[in-house]
Structures are given as structure tokens and as C-alpha cells.
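Feature request, filed as a ticket because there's no other form

It would be nice if the structure record came with a short human-readable summary line next to the C-alpha cells. Right now we just get the raw output. Example of a typical job, pasted below so the devs can see what we mean:
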Amino acid sequence: MSGQIYLLQEDGTLQSLSEQPYGSEDLLQMLLEKYPDLLAGDQIDESEPRRWLLVSREAGVPSEEDGYDQWSLDHLFLDQDGIPTLVEVKRSSDTRIRREVVGQMLDYAANAVVY
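Raw output as currently delivered:
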């Protein structure tokens, strides 16, 4: 049964679940907003898994002091230690290269800290 996920039914049978792509980024964003535990907190620290509190969805990030919000971060969470966690949702079918997406997150993080 390795590599599979099963749902135990009330009658004791197992229902095999199959992986499906998300229909839209917005669907995954809504699920993360409602269920922050979907973030892999146990992969960060197995002994004390991260737990998150949603601060804002579509949080504005300015690019200069007293400037307007140049970017919009999908989610801003705080963990149980008050450490901010920035989440940007991308579908695997997004044609932008990973380097561009990583650069986008670095822009968000750098500017969120400064401004």
C-alpha cells in the first residue's frame, strides 16, 4: 500500500484516493485559508510541528516607504512563535520558470521586512 492514500470507510473498507490537480489557484488559496494545517508544518520540525494563524489573504506588499502596494502576497501566516510565513500559490502548469517564482518570493520577503 505504499505511495497510496486510503480513506477508511465506516463499514471497515478502504477507499483508494487518487491525486488530482487543483482546478484553480483560487481553490487552493481558499483551502489554505480555511485549513492552514495543509501547510507541511511537521516537515519543518517533527518534534514541534508548525501551526499557523492566517493574518491576511492577498496581503499588499509595497516596494517603497509610504508607497502603494506593488505586489499582492497570496497568504500571510504567523506561526506559534510569531514568525511570519509568506505563501504564494502556483499551479504546476504555471509556465513561468521556478527561478522567476523564487525571485518573486524574495521580492515579497525583502520588501515586507523593510516596508
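Something like this underneath would help us a lot:
The beta strands are 5-8, 14-17, 52-62, 69-79, 84-87.
The chain has a mean pLDDT of 83.
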